[in-house]
Structures are given as C-alpha cells and as structure tokens.
Amino acid sequence: MEKRVTFKGWLLPLLLIAPQVLISAVFFFYPAGQAVWQSLFIPDPFGLSAQFVGLGNFEFLLGDPYYRASFVTTAVFSLLVTLCSMVPALFLAVIADRLIKGSGIYRTLLIWPYAVAPAVAGVLWMFMFNTRVGVVSWYLGQFGYDWNHVLNDNEAMGLVVVASAWGRISYNFLFFFAALQSVPRSVIEAAAIDGAHFWRRFFGIVLPLITPTAFFLLVVNVVYAFFETFGVIHTITAGGPQQATTILVYKVFADGFVGQDLGSSSAQSVILLLVVGLLTVIQFKYVEKRVHY
Amino acid sequence: MAQKSGMVEKGGAGVWLTHLLMVAGVLVVFFPIWLAFVASTITQPEIVSPPMPLLPGDHFLENYSAALLSGVNVPVATMLFNSLVMAIGIAVGKIIISLLSAFAIVYFRFPGRTTFFWMIFITLMLPVEVRIVPTFEVVAGFGMLNSYSGLILPLIASATATFLFRQFFMTIPDELAEAARVDGARPMRFFIDIVIPMSRTNIAALFVILFIYGWNQYLWPLLITTDPQMNTIVMGIKQMFPSGDDVAEWPVIMATSILAMIPPVFVVVSMQRLFVRGLVDSEK
Fold first, then answer.
1. What Cα–Cα distance (Å) separates residue A86 from each residue in A116, A177, B205?
2. Cβ contact (<8 Å) for A12 and B108?
3. Do A10 and B111 touch (CB under 8 A)?
4. ipTM exceeding 0.85?
5. Is B261 in Cβ contact with A252 (below 8 Å)?
6. Same domain for B236 and B186
7. Using CB atoms, which residue from B8, B30, B108 is nearest to A189?
8. Does some domain include residue B67?
9. What's the domain count of chain B?
10. Angle between helices B200-215 and B250-270 (to 10 degrees)
C-alpha cells in the first residue's frame, strides 16, 4: 500500500522519524544486541571480567532440568490461563448476546477487571486465599479442605492461573460479544424456523462463524500468559513453592536480578526472543485471516 | 431492533433466567474487587480473625486517609502522582512520536525509508520483560534510575501506535494532500491543519489503551525505582507487605489496591466506546 501523492524533501521526514528511531535504537536495539552478546559469555562472580563460552550458556540451559521444568510450567500455565479466560468469557458473551435490553450495563461492569493491573489482581486474589486471613481459604477450611498455596504446588499454580485469567475475561468477553453481535440474525432465524434449538444453532452456526475471533484470542491470550503475567506471579508466589510457578519470564528476572547470573539470564532472553518472534508470526497470520472486524 | 424480538429470543421466564445468569456471572467476576473494598473499610482486628465480614464497615475515611497521607514506606498520594506522570508520559509520548513517524513514512519518499520502517516494525516483537537486564543497564548508564524519564522513555519504544496511525493515514483521501500541495501548503501545515484533526478519534482511542498500559506497568518500575519516593502505586503495593513474619496492614493495603484501580477503571468506563474501539484497532 503506497500513497500516490507525497511531499518532496528528505530532511524533514528524517527529522520526523528521528525520535522514534532514536528511542528504538537506544532502548531496544542496543539492549537486544547486548542480550545476544552477553549470552555468549560467563562473567566472573565479581563482574570484573567475562569468559567467552560461545553457545555454552545455551547448552547449559537446555540441559538444565530447572530450565526445562520452567518450559513445562510455562506451557501448562499459558494453556490453563487461556482456557480459564476464554471459556467463561464466551459463556458470558453468549448470555449477553441473548439479551435485548440491558447488555450495555453488564458490559460496563464486566470490563472493570481489564483495567485492574495484573499485579493488583495478584494482591486481590492473594488476599482472598491468604492462609491466615483469606475469606475463601477460611470457608474452604470449614468444608474440611486445607488450602495452602504457599506449600502446595498445584494450589499455587491454580491461584496464579485464576488471578491471571480473571482480568482477561473482560478482554475476551468484549471480542466474543462483538463477534456474536455480528452474526447475521437472518441466518439464526432461518435455522430456528427449521427447528434447530438453541444449542444446535450455537454449535452448528454461531461457533463456526466466530472461530476466527476465537483463534485470534487464543494466540493473544497465550502471548499475554507468557509475557504480561509477571506481576501476578511476583505478588502471589514469587515463583514458588520451589519453582512450581516459575514461568520463563519470571526466570529471566530471578536469574538476572536476584541470582545475578547475567550470562544465563541473557541466553534466556535470547531464547524468549525467538519464542516471541514465533508467536508474533502466528499472530499476524491469524490477524490477517480475521474477517469479522 | 424489531427483528431481534423475533422467534430466536425467548420471552418471559427465559429472559429472567438469562438476566439471572448474567447477574451471577457479574457477581463472581466482581467478588475480588468487592472484597478488597470491604477490607478497606474495616479494621485490622476484623480482618486478622477470619472470616472477615462481607459488608463494608465504617472505617472508610480512616483507612483511606492513612493510606493517602502516610502509607507504609511512602504516602500513597506520592505513588499516585508518580503513576499519573508515568501513564500520561507514556501515552502522550508514544502518540507524539508515532504520529510524526507515521506521517514521515506515509507522506514522504526518503532514503532509508524502508529500513526505518522495518526497524520500527521489529520493535513490535520484543516486550520489555524479555530484555530487562540490558535495558536496565542502559538506563542505569544514563543515570536515569529513579527518574521519570527512566520510567517513561524505554516503554515508548514500541511500534503498535505507529502502525495504527500508518493504517489510518492511508485512508485519508489523496485529494486532500493534492489540494494542500497545489495551494503551496508546506507539509507541516498539512499535518497540523488536516491530518491531526482527522485523527482525533484514533488519538483518543489510543490514549485510553496506552494510559492503562502505562498505569499498569509493574516489572519496569520495580527494577528502576529503588527510592520509595519514585515508586508507582501498582508496584508499590507489593512493597507494603512486610518481610518476614510481621502481619500486613491489610486495611491500608486494600485501600491502596482500590486507589490503584480507580484511575484506569474510570478511564475505561467513562470512555468505553473509545476504549473498545482502541482495543479492536490496536489488535488489528
């Protein structure tokens, strides 16, 4: 896509584009280059010199059971976050779509959690399930279930998943709702005349029509779970118990800033860079195929 | 809308059931926020001897003024101000640099145009979470730790807004630029008199999205604001929890959580139409 009509000159456009290019160069390309460069070295413990190790950091990482465990943790975590945010959102959107009046009010209320920062969401959920003062954990205790996400791996994972998925329900709801609203009424009415009841109409007609949106949301939610849930994990579990909730992004932070292992942290950054690249390519593929907006 | 009340939607009991399900859904989704609000209006003893009440108490003013004026490490009012500066700085900064670069890319042919375009495009791919250590070193090297520029500048290097404006500028009729050129108007006149006014809605929609993006940042402020005076509210809440076995001051912390969500919620709800539009646009 190109404009036919353009202005002359080269100095002005260079000046116009300069701020963005400069900021990208300083805060993006240079650090990314540094990450690649540092990933080839192991610094000594005092940070005075570094030894070139080639791909040694990568070899070490790929052989490291903790790192491989973190990959698995990330996969499980993102899958669960995606499911737990998309299914309730679709359910709510289907209900809201059936309302003739009043869906606007519900929509206004349902978008609240989107505005709540992941880190704040983490604090809210941690408060509800706090082992000492939490309301939900107390009631669970009354039913004889001893909740303790500080010690129990699965409970910790469950809590960070729910806290991360919570805010995304709003986001997914908005997209599902818009998609459902754009399904032509005439098609649905025709099916209704043919005697198809609600669920048959839903699975036979509506769901296939909103599949592009669902695919798009799938990719976007996986990206979210990978990269934007740091706040939730840091506030609720700090990666624990042991490493049960240490997703890849958390590990870059933990190894780089807490563990001060710059070589390994940089190598992890480079690996994540490749993962992001891959996800972005997938995202673009699906975004282009998305026809309903 | 007459056709909507046709045979597909049920009347009577069906409608009530639908509303009931919807209300139940909203209540479940809202529960964490409600609980935080209740906790911010009662006393510490009421919280530490569970179960805490599920209806608000009468210590609202006491807890909120304690949070705003003294906080734990630093008054929450200070953190709110820092967050506001950061969120507005990021939103306005991104919008300005993106408008300028998109205008250059769409309306000029200049050497290096394609290279720059791809340079900007690639920045789409790398969230700050992935390159934290080297970015931290760059910012530290510039002496920008504990400063607003350190909070803002690294986060405005992103391409989403540029692409959005580029897409929009492509839809501006060529006749307008042609007319401006014939009239002898200089490019910047055209930019200020025609392009910017036409982009008003896009700018506003993007502002909503970017404000929330900036307000809700956590990892970056956590790394570069070691001085509590520079903490933002979203990262500051976690800092209010005591280390070790001390008991957290729950009412103050929960009041802070509520305060931390008021500005973004207000922006989203009051500018709902723009927000939804911005959301859909920025994912295109």
1. 18, 12, 24
2. yes
3. yes
4. yes
5. no
6. yes
7. B8
8. no
9. 2
10. 170
Q: Which residues of B touch A91 (CB under 8 A)?
A: 25
Residues of chain A with pLDDT under 50: 290-293
- Residue B104 sits in the same domain as residue B234: yes
Please report the pLDDT score of residue B85 as a whole number: 96
Paired residues of A51 in beta bridges? A42
Q: Which residues pair with B222 in a beta bridge?
A: none
Q: Which residues of B touch A106 (CB under 8 A)?
A: 22, 25-26
Do B43 and B168 fall within a single domain?
A: no
What is the fold, at CATH topology level, of the domain defined by A65-289?
A: MetI-like fold (1.10.3720)
Q: Is residue B274 part of a domain?
A: yes
CA A115 from centre of chain:
15
Token pair recorded at residue B233: 């509210």
Task: Give the pLDDT of residue A290.
Answer: 46
CB B194 within 8 A of CB B180: yes
pLDDT of residue B222: 92
The DSSP annotation for A174-187 comes to: HHHHHHHHTS-HHH
Residue B128 lies in a domain: yes
A277 to chain B: which residues are within 8 Å by CB? Answer: 125
Residues 6+ apart with CB under 8 A from B76: B67, B68, B233, B236, B255, B256, B259
Tokens 């870059």 -> residue: A252
Domain that holds residue B6: 2-62
* Predicted local distance difference test score (pLDDT) of residue B3: 40
Within 8 A of B162 by CB-CB distance, chain A residues are 20
pTM over 0.95: no
Query: In terms of domains, do B89 and B34 share one?
Result: no
With beta carbons less than 8 A apart as the criterion, state whether B209 and B279 touch: yes
Please report where in the chains the tokens 């025709």 appear, as a residue: A190
Same domain as B153, residue B122? yes
Exposed/middle/buried for residue B191 (C-beta within 10 Å: 0-12, 13-18, 19+): buried
* Residues B16 and B43 grouped into a single domain: yes
The CATH number of residue B246's host domain is 1.10.3720.10
Could you write out the three-class secondary structure of A120-132? HHHHHHHHHCCCC
CB contact under 8 A, B134 and A266: yes
Q: Give residues with Cβ within 8 angstroms of A212, minimum separation 6.
A: A286, A289, A290, A291, A292
pLDDT along chain B (284 residues), means of 10: 45 77 90 94 88 88 89 90 96 94 90 86 72 86 92 85 88 87 84 90 89 92 91 92 80 94 91 79 62
A115: its two tokens: 């505005």
pLDDT at residue B12, rounded to an integer: 65
